[in-house]
Design brief:
globular; about 15% strand; single chain; 8 strands; Phosphatase_YcdX_put; TIM Barrel; alpha/beta; zinc ion binding; eight-stranded mixed β-sheet
Length: about 240
């Protein structure tokens, strides 16, 4: 299985990443990607940009180095009500909203609290995907949340960075999450979570995991540009600019 979309990348605007958007796009082109989502950390994360950074993404070209550019964010889940730290008037201007737990923003609690929070985030209708759920600091009821995501057409990210050591203890949990997603009919997205250009489009650990469990390619929305755009259209976003991909 080959992935042609990277749905999780960071630029220097995130405060703890080290490459520019142009450098990331050049790396994406070298890796043969069709599309790349720009997902800098939303304002609650220490060091992250002001909300104007996200509102102003409308100025970004739709193609850089031949790679289609999706305007997005890695939003922070901020409370048990499942709220994120960008207002709807901003997120509705974006193509892609990935929502994640981050320890500096949401203090880890107990399994039930995390479960309730994720269910509320899904129910909010404001996010396309849930990021790096394998983090053992945020345990949750896997089947309950992943089933709810499948029913709400919210995709589950399998994060290459988590599988390569950035969040210790994630690997076996990511495999369990992917197996449950396979069983309950949920779809997946693949993100490098690159904080440096060389990691954009790096999916080696994701590829190995999904091959191991024989996850169906038709439910990995990053396996083709057409499939990814179709997913966004199913969520109400029309991107005629990329119709030829």
């Amino acid at each position: 299985m080959k992935f042609v979309v990277d749905t999780h990348t960071h630029t220097i605007s995130s405060g703890h990443a080290y490459s520019t958007l142009l450098e990331n796009a050049a790396a994406a082109a070298e890796k043969g990607l069709s599309l790349m989502c720009v997902t800098d950390h939303a304002p609650s994360m220490p060091g992250s940009p002001h909300f104007w950074h996200f509102a102003n993404q409308r100025i970004l070209p739709r193609f850089l180095h031949g790679v289609g550019i999706l305007r997005g964010v890695e939003a922070n889940i901020i409370n048990p009500d499942g709220e994120i730290d960008l207002q709807p008037q901003i997120t509705e201007q974006l193509d892609w909203v990935l929502a994640s737990f981050h320890e500096p923003v949401y203090r880890p609690a107990d399994k039930q609290t995390h479960t309730t929070t994720l269910l509320n985030t899904i129910a909010s209708g404001w996010v396309h995907a849930l990021g790096h759920l394998g983090n053992p600091n945020f345990d949750f009821e896997f089947e309950q949340v992943i089933t709810a995501a499948a029913e709400a057409n919210v995709v589950i990210e399998i994060n290459n960075s988590s599988l390569s050591g950035s969040r210790a203890g994630s690997q076996p949990r990511c495999e369990q999450i992917a197996r449950i997603a396979k069983d309950v009919g949920a779809s997946l997205t693949t993100g490098s979570d690159a904080h440096f250009a060389y990691d954009v489009g790096r999916f080696d650990h994701v590829e190995a995991l999904l091959a191991k469990i024989d996850f169906p390619e038709e439910r990995v929305i990053t396996s083709s540009a057409k499939q990814f755009i179709s997913f966004l259209e199913s969520k109400g976003t029309t991107l005629e600019t990329f119709s030829a991909l």
